[in-house]
Amino acid sequence: GLTKSASLAAATRAGGGGGGGGGGATASSKKLVIKNFRERPKLPDNYTQDTWQKLHEAVGAIQSSISIKYNLEELYQAVENLCSYKVSATLYKQLRQVCEDHVKAQILQFREYPFLMHRNDSLDSLLFLKRINKCWQDHCRQMIMIRSIFLFLDRTYVLQNSMLPSIWDMGLELFRNHIISDKQVQNKTIDGILLLIERERNGEAVDRSLLRSLLSMLSDLQQVYKDSFEQRFLEETNCLYAAEGQRLMQEREVPEYLHHVNKRLEEEGDRVITYLDHSTQKPLIACVEKQLLGEHLSAILQKGLDNLLDENRISDLTQTYQLFSRVKGGQQILLQHWSEYIKNFGTTIVVNPEKDKDMVQELLDFKDKVDHIIEVCFQKNEKFINLMKESFETFINKRPNKPAELIAKYVDSKLRAGNKEATDEELERILDKIMIIFRFIHGKDVFEAFYKKDLAKRLLVGKSASVDAEKSMLSKLKHECGAAFTSKLEGMFKDMELSKDVMVQFKQYMQNQSDPGNIDLTVNILTMGYWPTYTPMEVHLNSEMIKLQEVFKTFYLGKHSGRKLQWQTTLGHAVLKAEFKEGKKEFQVSLFQTLVLLMFNEGDEFSFEDIKMATGVEDNELRRTLQSLACGKARVLIKNPKGKDVEDGDKFIFNGDFKHKLFRIKINQIQMKETVEEQVSTTERVFQDRQYQIDAAIVRIMKMRKTLGHNLLVSELYNQLKFPVKPGDLKKRIESLIDRDYMERDKDNPNQYHYVA
């Protein structure tokens, strides 16, 4: 085969690419035969030296930025020829020497720099940076040209010798060793760069392309960036932001401070993109976060979180969450303060009795507010949702029983007929929200008791806004607390349905009577166990009423033998027709009001004592009733002497001049308003009921286990009982059961109990 350098002379003459093949061919048709040279052609004497001279000149011209005498292809070819003749090693050494001499000469301009060591003189520093930058840019441009001429050397000899740096790397190494490793130059450069960055951070405009060029120079000169620049840069950043954090935390309000932190983080991020090395991003951002946020987490929240939450500052809260989420432990501390805020704010709603009338509405508004903040600002973070629920549960039970009672009354106000403010959909939405608050309450039996009492009033006075809404509320309660919780409430509805059927039959029954009477009687038959307990009150009904009661009793017991009817006079009401000078009117009144008004058919004036004798209505109840008739808006009676309260000896006169724009007038039954005694008695009934439930649970457990230690019994009771209970109360009930011989103490171990069959 032909060797690569078979015919050098031909090649150089032709001025073309590397060696071709030679051999003579005559004009006749003899085959062309290619043979090897007998011996290898020699380079002309002095070829190596002359060629190097040429190359040396060219490199010098490049370094001096003057034009090169030879064309580049010729120089490239010369390098290739030298390499082919195994002169590569020498060539590389010579090239390195020339470059090194040139780079060494560059250092002088910086050494002679007259003002090398005043870091504070920023103008001087800038001139120095520009000079070092020009030196670096020139060096890079020159090395690119030199490498393109010596490319063959770079691609063959250098590649085969792994120990040798490429021509470009060799240039970097020389620049690093002779210029940047010079302590004075290096310090001056890095000082200058840091000064520029500091000025930019202080809001001045600086030459960013100069910074970019110098920092990429340091990056290219391996490790100089990491060891000499980055470390100092991060230390200075740390000091700057540590001081800035301390200062601004004093001077600024929290939203402005957080806004500033955000701005700083964006600026530093932009700095990384524009001129810092990408590897600096993590430590730089971490440093800003630590000094401006991490060091002040508690202080920021103590100073400003309550305010942001009070004023519902959505965008600031969003920013707080986002910034705190960046820092280790940030979310955790935000969670704690979030929880504290909810508990403190919630407690102010629940604990103050003066706020009772607005408590439930305020709770609903507060819940809406925190829900909105979680959704918009805290990205629906589960931890914040769960902690919010726990916090609600904590504060709402700080005041036992009252919230439960008020929630029941709130529902009553929404389900009562007068409530025109809501459409069905709105009402449904309100009930759903109420259920969420209801869920947090421990003593749900208190709610049940008051709910039942109000439901009874709504049903009996026909005051329910919508059966659908009532049923919907019941199914929500059933879903939440189980069927046992709502069975009595459902029973009340059943009673009302059944009563309607009974009344249809009673009407037919009355038509068949010889003397049906002129009073139209409607009776609701209530099953004792389902309805609230009403105190029976004996009053003196007139003869017609008594007769009607007897007729109904005969009719009902004829159908249902063995049942006992007890009339609840407190729940009765009637429509009375009356004649005044102005004309006829109708009054919608309670049974007690009816009994009082009917007396005035017999005379025009009666004293308080007369009325009390005749009606038999209990003293307080009667005073309230007379108040409603003589002191309210519709004054059918005139009280003498005038006054708000009914006193002994007051006289009552029929008001013949009574006027009213309506034909049918409802005289507010003051008895339907809940009295404090009623409220207390409802709560007491709940507690009484709880005693029975505790007793039943203890007996149930003991019957099953036969023998049990005190602590195990108590923990089992906590599992079974649905309401909050104190260990002391349980102890009392256990003692009571021991006294009543349901269980006994162990003879040897007083903490052990045995069931007594």
From TrEMBL:
One of its GO terms (biological process) is protein ubiquitination. Pathway: Protein modification; protein ubiquitination. The keyword Iron-sulfur does not apply. GO terms for molecular function: ubiquitin protein ligase binding. Residues 402-630 form the Cullin family profile domain. The keyword Ubl conjugation applies. It comes from the Eukaryota. PROSITE patterns: CULLIN_1, CULLIN_2. GO terms for cellular component: Cul4A-RING E3 ubiquitin ligase complex. Signal peptide: none annotated. InterPro entries: Cullin (IPR045093), Cullin-like_AB (IPR059120), Cullin_CS (IPR016157), Cullin_homology (IPR016158), Cullin_homology_sf (IPR036317), Cullin_N (IPR001373), Cullin_neddylation_domain (IPR019559), Cullin_repeat-like_dom_sf (IPR016159). Keywords: Biological rhythms, DNA damage, DNA repair, Host-virus interaction, Isopeptide bond, Phosphoprotein, Ubl conjugation, Ubl conjugation pathway. Belongs to the cullin family. This is Cullin-4A. The gene is Cul4a.
